[in-house]
Amino acid sequence: MERPTHDVEYEQMLLSRHTFLSRRGGRRQDGVLERSAYILLSRIRVQGPMTIGELSDAFGLDASTLNRQTAAATRAGLLERIADPGGGMARKFRITAEGSRLLDEEREGIVEVLDHVMADWSDDDIAAFAGYLRRFNHGIERIGGRPWPRP
User: Cβ distance 136 to 144 under 8 Å?
Assistant: First the structure.
């Protein structure tokens, strides 16, 4: 007999295949940021400037992967390198004004799509769903030892 977690696994797999395309002007279009940049900028926005080592620990990725991602984001004008405000020797990455603007634009586009997807849901249903997702993510973070700071 299959357990309910089999249903969760299947629905999570289906969810992971979707990309959220914004609906600007009534037409669907790709987002403004690549997914890795969106997640990277989101983490730095919530936590503040971070070193490659801190990013590596936060994401559970090797430093070479983060070096490639931060280099691409820096070339695109989304991040900038700054001296450690705490006086440490390592340099940190901080979101630029353009990175912040594009992150806000991307997030707003995704929220527009979610508003469309859940147009027939009550506010209570949406809040309950968000609560379950938060609880699910907290469980994953607890097991993985990598909590994600929330605003």
Answer: no
